[in-house]
């Protein structure tokens, strides 16, 4: 028989409708829809960021400098190339509201602007007044606007006054929205003032920590690539950082791209669970077609014709499922756009994007092919003798080698596609290895479970309901494997996320009081250090104080080559880094290689570099490194490596230099203060009153904001895991529906032998509950292993079992399978034994 014959037979089969393919369609459509929706949302955000690049950036281009303002030469270049320019100075400070002998204090991110700000867009304020009017001030005081959270925290009302440094400001309005905000993570709420208003504040002084940004409006048709190269060629060695509207928020774009890729991989895990449902549905469908297939074989149909007939039929159904998934995945983000935009802190342009849909369709087609080939390969076992009852049960455990080769090839194609489309081969391979390992473990667990319950059933004959349940689970035809696989994989992801999230929260609560300092103090002037240190030394609640001179520098060259050519895209060279100096080796510093300079050394500049980062960057002892500090290039030789531990939230510098290398550079000091929690308010009050220019960063609050961010990422992953779990529930429903005929026959036999409906129902309930609990327990083991691996090898932290999360995983598995099992068991109890047994004969 030819392919045409197979196509004709498949068409006749399809005419009968899609009965039996409901779970197949649902699993495939849900998996494809999840991936398509994630890809569409990611594409919408990326398009929004690209289209609104200038608005997000605040201009066509931006030139920024660390802890200095632009030089005359740089300002002249801007004037000759831009039609308009706006200067912004950004830094952190303490907002102080005096109230009698006491005061309210809070950290704020200050944006000092000029009269040209904003070049693009507008600032939204409450009350609805212009920014110029709000910053104009009243009663001789400069005006300011604040984020609502900060206003409420400080207990301010419109017209009240507060201080930044030594300068008093009047609050004119609440800040509702900044046009040039990409919604990035910040340690503190925003305050906007004028640059002129800060003139007497003492906050913008030589050596203080601030960043100056110059937003530029460029002439129409300006070639951004050309002007960018010109700016960098002229001023890169002075510490310039250039951005333009081609990528207004590069860090955010990179985060969206990487996290979106990760969520798509989570979606692929859900598609793998759906594949289990697809495979189960195909097995059940082919089991019902055994007599038809055997009849065709007896009439002369070849194995290839039979295979082609059902491959074409299932292929058509798979295309319907993929199309349905693409329709849902394309429309859902558009329909939910208002809700999504209300929670996104950055722009997104929701429409239909073909590439994410093509990606989802490719994944769906490959997954459907992988999970249908294996059961289709069983068609070779169907012979004319299968017209006799149960002949299909005598089948080979593995399909023919050509089918195994095809499955392996398709799986490799899926991995290659995921690697290329996600942009991270390493992440894809590790994720795939984890999913495959989990599925293998769950399959082995299901096999072991069946073997175990068969043994237990022999010893529990005095408890018939339990014995019947165990015997049913142990039978080969029972759906233990798909239940444990599908439900277990979804619960495994949930368990891993729950354990990691719980352990991170515990680590913060457990380690912070003992390890981390209470405060970082920055912008301490050199002449303030003696008094600052004396006040802390006199406080018995202060257990430890560390201080160091603080500058910021940009590594521009390594061994006289551009730093990026040597270190690639390593995070150390992505921006400016802390630079300190010390004559003697600082206390508790461990030199891992090389030697520290002598205390009276005044020769050529030398650097002691962080050992781990040096190894990652490929830096060796004797290499030279050019660091731009406040516009001045300092080329130094790397003479030692040392351990730098950032995990304690204490003081750590990537770069330390000999004092003479930085002689004359204006700078301030930073200090970390370790103290009891109950003394923190008093310390903050005393020091901020005595030194209004210094900024205090409360570590517990900062870590709390980081913890909230981690929780949000965990929630996003949990949503992906929930999609996997939903797919698993569909597989359970399919398995329960496929086993309904068997349960009906079993109920008829048990009734005939004298069992009551209550006993049979209890047996069915126990069967479902035991399978669900087993899936939950196995998933918990996988989740605990995954959580331990992440905390130990990625977070490098202690791991302990979060028992509430663990209990939730097991109970979810038990409840889900119990409910599905009972729904499909109740109709089986209502049938009459005589009709069922006669039909069986």
Describe the protein's architecture and organization.
With 841 residues, the chain is α+β, with helices and mostly antiparallel strands. It folds into four domains: 1-51 and 254-423, no CATH class; 61-221, no CATH class; 438-515 and 699-841, no CATH class; 542-675, no CATH class. A six-stranded mixed β-barrel has the order 2-3-8-5-7-6. A six-stranded mixed β-barrel has the order 12-14-19-16-18-17. A hairpin with a 2-residue loop joins strand 2 and strand 3. Helix 10 packs antiparallel against helix 12. The chain starts with a helix and ends with a helix. Residues 387-394 have low confidence and may be disordered. One of its GO terms (cellular component) is plasma membrane. Keywords: Cell membrane, Membrane, Transmembrane, Transmembrane helix. It is found in: Cell membrane.
Number of helices: 25
Low-confidence stretches: 387-394
| Count of domains | 4
- Decide which structural class fits the backbone: alpha+beta
Widest beta sheet: strand line-up: 2-3-8-5-7-6
Number of strands: 21
Instruction: Determine Rg (CA atoms, Å).
Output: 34 Å
Largest β sheet strand count, sense and barrel closure: 6 strands, mixed, barrel
Kindly report how far apart the N and C termini lie: 34 Å
On the 0 to 100 scale, the average pLDDT is 81
Structural shape: elongated
Q: Classify the beta-strand content into a percent band.
A: 15-25%
Q: Helical residue percent?
A: 40-55%
